[in-house]
Amino acid sequence: MEIIIVDDEPVSLTALKQIVEKHPACRVRGFAEASAALSWCANNDPDVVIVGYVMPELNGVEFVEHLRTLTGKKETPVLMVTANVDQNIRAHALRVGVNDLLNKPYDSAELQARVGNMLLLRARQRKLPDPSSFVAADRSRAAAPDTGERAVGHTLLDLNMTLTRLGDDETLLSQVARVFMRTAPGLLQSISEALERNDSERAYAEAHSLKGAIAVFEAPEVFNSIVAVETHAHKYDSRSAAAAFRAARALVERLMSELSALLRERGAGPVPQL
User: Which of 60, 127, 259, 261 could cysteine-pair with 53, CB 3.0–4.6 Å?
Assistant: First the structure.
């Protein structure tokens, strides 16, 4: 069965793709651009679509509206993964054809379960064998005992919870940490420049992207600091957004330092320069 993931945020796309493609019965394709995903869907038949909400070309709701106009795509199960909690947006998403929504931050067990339900729905639509092993495979990892040896020395990052969220996959943790360390500085710079220009809409969009990336990790203080920037920017309160950003930037940079130290401790190859 074939799953496509549409998310312009590199950390989120990496985590989603690596978690979902653990199921051997599935092929997973990732798209950073909504238009490229729609072009592919016009000529192919995905079994499940996973989509983010805030994207530069089309947001997730608009993407699904376009998807549903394509021949044979009216019943394709769609999961939206989003950090947006606006109830009007969520209701609109369900009205246009999103089948289920998953909040960020999420853990791998919940993601696997929801996608597993959609695979089962699709299998029944197409009269295929029951793919229930998708959910069962992750439950065994989620139930694994915690050794209690992971969280030493980390003040912002809760390493135990982060690994649980990523299905106890240390290789995936290293991958998303590297992607985050490559992309977060650019997002911080974009937010800073937008706030200097009093461009609240741009600051909001970039803060939302950064929030989505941070949501892959269990670092609530950092996550909440970016939520504050996003909230003020959404209200066009540039002064408050700038004040919140100063605190948030320091926390994000501390998180990157912790991730850098973690990669060095684990001998995970060259570490991106901060």
Answer: 60
